[in-house]
Amino acid sequence: MYVLYTILASLGFFFVLKWMKKRKYCTDLKRLDGKTVLITGGNSGVGKDTAVSMAMRGARVIIACRDLDKAEKAVREIKFKSHSLNVFHMELDLANLRSVREFCKNFVQKEKRLDILINNAAMPGVLDCTDDNFSMCFGVNHLGHFLLTNLLLPQLKECAPSRVVTLTCSSYKYQKLDFQDLNYNLLPFFTYCRSKLANIYFSQELARITQGKGVTSYAVHPGFVQSGWTCHYSVLFRMLMQVIMWMFFVSSEIGAQTVIYCAVSDEAAKHSGGYFVDCRPATLRPFARDAGVAKKLWEASERLVKLV
C-alpha cells in the first residue's frame, strides 16, 4: 500500500508541475513577407526561438549579438529550423554605448526596412559594470536598448505600422526605482528587478511618444524560461538551478509565444503600451503604471546615454 501511495503522490506531483508549466501558444498565422525583424540576443533561448518563428513567416531576420561565433552558429540553426535563408547576424554589444551607436549607423546604411524590433537580450543580476560604468543590469537591460530603440526610431516610423517588443519580467514588482541611484548595483536580484521595471516604464513612454505615428510598443513577460543565464554564476548554483528550471520553468519555445504574439497579432496592436503575459494583456501593479515616473525615467535615460 505504501508503494501505491508513493506512486500516486509522484504522479500527482508531476501532473501539478505539468499544469504549472502549461502556457498558451500564439495561434496567429500572419505572414511577414517583405518585413524586417531585428532581435537582440537572438543567438539563444527565447530570442532564437522567436527568430525561427519570424523566419518561418517569411521575414528577413537579423539577430544582433556580441559573440559572433555564437551568432554564426545560431544563424545556421535558425535557417535549418525555419527552412529560410533570409537570416543574418550583426555585431552588437549592449554593454557598450559606442557599440550601440556603431551598430545603428551600420544597420540604417545596410537595411532598407525595420518593421519589428524585439529588445530581447538581458543580463541576470550580476555585480559587473558596463564599459560606460553603469551597472550591468541597468546598462544592458535598459540603457542599451533605450539608445538602440531611439536611434532606430526614425526607421521604424518610416516603415509604419511597426512594432517594438521589449522583454521584461514579473519580478519588476519587488522593487521601485530610486532616481537618486538609478545605477543601483548592491544586491544583484534587486538590481535585476529594477532593470525589468525600467523596461516596463520604457515601453509605456515609447507608446505615448509614438502615439499616432504608426509605432506600437509592448512589454512582455515570457514566463520563467529554461535558459543559459546561470552561466554567470558558480558551478554549484548552476547545478541547483538546472534542477529547479527542469521542474518549474518553461522551455524557450513556450517562452517565445507571447513575444511572437505581440510581434504579429492584430489584437495585440490595440494595446500599445501594454504588459503581456501568456499571449494576453495582464495587469501591472499600480506603481508600475505611473506615467509621470515613466516620463521622468525617459528624460533621465536621455541624459545618461547623451541623447540630449
TrEMBL record:
Pfam families: adh_short. Keywords: Oxidoreductase. It comes from the Eukaryota. InterPro entries: NAD(P)-bd_dom_sf (IPR036291), SDR_fam (IPR002347). Gene3D superfamilies: NAD(P)-binding Rossmann-like Domain (3.40.50.720). GO terms for molecular function: oxidoreductase activity. Belongs to the short-chain dehydrogenases/reductases (SDR) family. This is Si:dkey-174n20.1. The lineage of its organism: Eukaryota, Metazoa, Chordata, Craniata, Vertebrata.
